[in-house]
Structures are given as C-alpha cells and as structure tokens.
Amino acid sequence: MKKRLIWDLPTRLFHWLLVLSILAQYVTAELLDDAVQWHFYIGYFTLGLIIFRLLWGIFGPRYAKFSQFVKGPGAVFAYVKTFFDRDSLPSVGHNPLGGWFVVVMIALVLVQAVSGLFMTDDIFLDGPLRSMAKDDVLSIMNTLHHLSFDTLVYVIMLHIGASVFYGFYKRQKLVPPMISGKKPLPEDEAQYYGEAQGITHSQLGKAIIIALVAAACVYVVVEVLPPSAPAAQYYY
Ligand code: HEM
Ligand code: HEM
Q1: Which residues form the Cytochrome b561 bacterial/Ni-hydrogenase domain (predicted)?
Q2: Is the pLDDT of residue 232 over 90?
C-alpha cells in the first residue's frame, strides 16, 4: 500500500470548520441565552464556508470537484449493489452514493444560512435581509430555518453512521484521510482504477483567492444589500 494525497487541505479545513460551526449554531440558538448575536456572526461565517465550497467544487483540485463525485443514477445503483460487499474496491474520492450525501448536506446548510438572514429573535435582533421581505416570505424562511435543521440532524447522523459502518464493516477507514488528506491505495493503483490517483498539492494560492471572493459575497449580502434603517428607528 502507498499513501496518496486525496483530500486537499482547503477541503479538510472546510469540513472540520463546518462541523464546528454547525455545533456552535446549535449551542448559540438552543442552549445559551443571549447568544443570538454570536449565532448571526457564526451563521455569516458558515454561509462563507458554503460559498467557498461551491466555488471549490468548480475550480478546486480533482477530488474536490463536483464533476468528479456527482454521478448519475446508473453509477449510484451499481455502487449500491456492492454496498454490503466487504471486499469491494475502496473509492478514491467520495463514492457515488456518498457524493449525493455531500450535495444534500451542502444544500441543507445553504438553506439554513440563507433562511437565517430573514430570521428574528423577536426581541432585539433582525437578520440583515428581514426588512426586505414580505410577511409570507418571512414565514416560509422561519419554517425552513427550523425544518432544514431538523433534517440536517438526521442526515448528519446517517453520515457519521456511514463512517462507522465503513470503518468496522468494510474495514475502510474514511476519517483519518479527512484529517491527514492521505489514503492508502494499492502500489499499482493504475491497474485497479484505470489511471494513476492522487493530487500533487492543495492549490493553496487559488484557495485563498476563492476564500476572499466568498468573504466578499457574504459582505455584500450582510452589509451592502440591506437598505439602511431610517434614522427614526434609532431615536424613537
Ligand atoms: C456537523 C456535522 C458534519 C457535517 C455537516 C459534515 C459534512 C460533510 C461534508 C459536506 C463532507 C464532504 C466534504 C467535501 O467534499 O467538501 C463530509 C465528508 C466527510 N465527513 Fe463529514 N460532516 C459532519 C461530521 C462528521 C464527523 C463527526 C465525522 C467523523 C466521524 C465526519 C466524517 C467525514 C468523512 C470521513 C468524510 C469523507 C467521506 C468520504 O471519504 O467520502 N463528518 N462531511
Ligand atoms: C448555517 C448556519 C445556521 C444554523 C445551523 C442555524 C441553526 C439554528 C437553530 C438550530 C435554531 C433554533 C431553532 C429552534 O428553536 O427550533 C436557530 C434559530 C435562529 N437562527 Fe439560526 N442557524 C444558522 C444561521 C443563521 C443565520 C445566518 C441567522 C441570522 C443572520 C440566524 C438567525 C436565527 C434566529 C434569529 C433564530 C431564532 C433565535 C431565537 O428565537 O432566540 N441563523 N438557528
């Protein structure tokens, strides 16, 4: 076996920062009193993470690209048939089924972050886009903010369950590669996978530019788009 770099550093950072952010969002909304301002800030950060990942899925290295892991129904079905096969060849990037899990998780967090921009704590704080929407839209956003989180919790439990299943049942350890970036593959992997696998580096320069673009998008949504409140709102 030879270790190959599969998960670039930005994808790994994205993953573990996303995990911390979702935990922090739960804690600031459900467990702590008076933490809604933090919930907003971390929500903006989470939105930035998702915008980054969407761009990274287009411009990033091989295994981060959506085109590499989002497969059609034929490939997903063929993979599902081998699901309980303990000796199936490990997927190098996301497997065809896991790829769709990734898409669903990213989409749910995006819905969560966007709907949050229209929320209110009913006391002091309004999300930055709240004043731009009518009541019926606000009510949909409120429903979405609750519903997508509940759905996300189930999907995350399945996701963590799948990592445990792969580790114990299929003897494929997926978590260490999400930390170190490296996966053990057969020496002559071209023979098994049809071509050489792995990436040579994480393309950090490109990642920094994309992170700045993502931050700029969040700035526009939070600071530029909302109409400034009339002065009267502050004084009376
Ligand atoms: C809030 C909780 C979590 C969320 C929202 C989440 C979300 C994601 C996403 C979006 C990806 C795709 C990464 C990418 O390509 O950008 C991913 C991959 C992965 N996650 Fe998580 N994750 C969570 C928790 C965890 C935990 C606790 C573990 C460890 C047990 C874990 C293990 C993994 C692994 C191993 C992969 C790579 C799967 C593969 O090899 O195809 N995740 N996760
Ligand atoms: C993607 C990140 C986010 C996650 C995971 C998240 C999660 C949650 C959760 C679990 C709740 C509690 C819902 C309930 O009581 O059933 C909540 C409430 C809330 N969220 Fe978020 N949220 C996110 C982003 C945002 C953003 C960006 C904003 C605003 C800018 C926001 C504003 C609010 C508000 C105002 C509440 C109600 C708090 C209260 O009533 O005390 N959220 N969020």
Answers
A1: 7-181
A2: no
Looking from the CA of residue 106, the nearest atom of ligand 1 is 10
Q: What is the CATH class of 2-228?
A: mainly alpha
CB of 48 shorter than 6 A to ligand 2 = no
Whether 96 is in the pocket of ligand 1, judged by its Cβ within 6 Å, is no
Closest C-alpha residue for ligand 1 atom 14:
11
Q: Report the pLDDT value the prediction gives residue 186, as an integer from 0 to 100.
A: 84
Residue 5 backbone dihedrals phi, psi, to 5 degrees: -75, 115
DSSP category for residue 230: P
The pLDDT value given to residue 98: 96
Q: Which two tokens stand for residue 208?
A: 């920094």
Q: Does residue 105 have its Cβ closer than 6 Å to ligand 1? A: yes
With H, G, I as helix, E, B as strand and everything else as coil, classify residue 3.
strand
Amino acid identity, position 38: W
Name the residue at shortest CA distance from atom 23 of ligand 1: 19
Structure tokens that stand for 22 in this block: 């979702």
CA distance 62 to 233: 51
Determine the distance separating the centroid of ligand 1 and the alpha carbon of 15, expressed in angstroms. 6
Q: What is the pLDDT of residues 49-60, one digit of tens each?
A: 999 999 999 999
Residue with tokens 């949050």: 116
Which ligand 2 atom lies nearest to the CA of residue 112? Answer: 1
Q: What whole-number distance in Å separates Cα of residue 113 and Cα of residue 47?
A: 6
Q: Name residue 182's beta-bridge partners.
A: 5
| Residue nearest to ligand 1 atom 11, measured at CA | 102
Instruction: Give residue limits of the domains in the chain.
Output: 2-228
pLDDT in tens, 135-189: 999 999 999 999 999 999 999 999 999 999 999 999 999 999 999 999 998 888 8
